[in-house]
Amino acid sequence: MSSDFGIYIHTPWCKSRCPYCAFNVFTSGADYSRWKSGLFSAWENTAPHFEGLAHSLYFGGGTPSLAPAHVLGTLIQRLPLAENAEVTVEVNPGSIDADGLRALLDIGVNRLSLGVQTFNTQHAKTLGRGHTVRQTRKLLSQVSRLGFDSWSMDLMFCLPRQTLSELNDDLSVLLDYSPPHVSLYGLTIEPNTPFDTAQQRGLLHLPEADTWRGMYDLIVDRLTQAGRDRYEVSNFSRPGHRAVQNESVWRGGFYAGLGPGAHGYLPQGSRTVGKANLEAWFADPHPILTPQSPAEAAADLILSTLRHIDGLCTLRLQKQTGFTLCESTVENLQTHRLITVGDGRIRLCHDAFAVSDGVVRRLIDTLISG
Ligand SMILES: C[S@@+](CC[C@H](N)C(=O)[O-])C[C@H]1O[C@@H](n2cnc3c(N)ncnc32)[C@H](O)[C@@H]1O
Ligand code: SF4
User: Fold this and answer.
1) Is the bond preceding residue 240 a cis peptide, omega within 30 degrees?
2) Which of 8, 208, 273, 342 lies most in the core, judged by the most C-beta atoms within 10 Å?
């Protein structure tokens, strides 16, 4: 039992599917009333694993800003949230107007995550976004004027044909809007997406491999200078504006995952996943338990916590999974100034955030059992 948990709700519908996206989304069959009923049923099934009140509720997508505010409002009212819980809704430009944003405030949403991705018209077209840059700017002006406690912008980089100078321009515009929180993601080519097909045919002109590093360093420099501190590989915020829900996940915290294809993590140590197929989920929305082997649990803990500035608690790793880190790997990573060791924790060094995947891989590959 745990009173320290979050609730993640997956909203599976979008107006159209972006060609790089591998999320569990649908462009037809939206039925928010059935979805709401399914979510309550899923929560009733999951609730016995949690105790007390949730510190956060996150509506992710898909495009949650397409959902009627009264449906989101009923969920906010009836789910067991702490009084000051963070309630976040992901919002896409062009999916909501000023009245819709006000309605979100009225039902108790106190944080928005805005899917900006780029301010460059050509790159927005390449990304196949269902909105224009003009709509993005309009949304940002509206959000800046309204009274949300906090809000965040998602931006993508390493886009096809994108130059360092274009990214620099995107960052300048982003900072002009003064977001309290920012998430930056390098474009990943996901299997079986139209971008994947285009890349295999040589039609996607991605920046050279070492460009990613240059772009990431530029992002860190500009955001840090502007007072947004990096607290996770891809996440930056002003003091007091870290994302409660996401930060809890990166600290290895527990959460109920509700909705089609949603992932959850129960205090007993099991992962859960909702059925991904829409009709199958409507028929049975209960999250399915996917117990982990100790080795999987150890890898999972390293993966989720090392990307955060607080790093990995080695005692927790041992107690929770029975695995320990290989001493010579740790020494080697220290020698190469990739990690620091102290206060019972392993933390990434400043320059190692850019190569965190490799560091995580080496620690996982050399884990010692028992
Ligand atoms: C849950 S997703 C989608 C949120 C929202 N529907 C949107 O598209 O703006 C959250 C973020 O993941 C990032 N993302 C999605 N697909 C990606 C990919 N293939 N590579 C890198 N980042 C990706 C985008 O920045 C997106 O805002
Ligand atoms: S709007 Fe977001 S979730 Fe929907 S298809 Fe595009 S990237 Fe995926």
Assistant:
1) no
2) 8
